[in-house]
Amino acid sequence: MIKNYIENANFEDTVFAYTLSLISGKHKMVILYCLMEFETVRFNELKRYLKTISDKTLSTNLKELEKDRLIIRTEYPQIPPKVEYSLSERGKSLMTVLDQLCIWGEENRLVK
Fold first, then answer.
1. Is this prediction's pTM over 0.70?
2. How far apart are CA 47 and CA 26, in angstroms?
């Protein structure tokens, strides 16, 4: 019975898979965490916080997070251009989940 269920199940159609798709990747959760901690952050501040990320990777991650409506990109019409990023209400609602991941990590971190 369970074997038939598993064979016919489609993980990609689950809400778990959907949630993971929003935050998957090496940097997205760290970007969201940074925006939660510092609220409004500019591109170069994020780059300094993430240290080893390339401009292209950071830009791509920010565009994906914006497309998924987890962050808000605010562009100011000035010279030089100024762009700031902050969490949307939808992004803020995800912070409870990320907080729980941090708590789990604190409690279960294997000391080397």
1. yes
2. 14
CB contact at 8 A, 27 and 61? yes
Beta-bridged to residue 86, according to DSSP, are 72
pLDDT digits 0-9 by tens, 55-75? 999 999 999 999 999 999 999
* Residue given tokens 């700031």 in the structure block: 84
Amino acid type, 94: L
For tokens 């907080």, the residue is 99
User: Could you give the 3-state DSSP secondary structure of residue 6?
Assistant: helix
Cis peptide, bond prior to residue 77, ω within 30 of zero: no
CA neighbours closer than 13 Å in the CB half-sphere of residue 82: 6
9: amino acid identity, one letter: A
Helix, strand, coil: what percent of the chain each, to 5? 65, 10, 25
Residue position matching structure tokens 């760290």 = 30
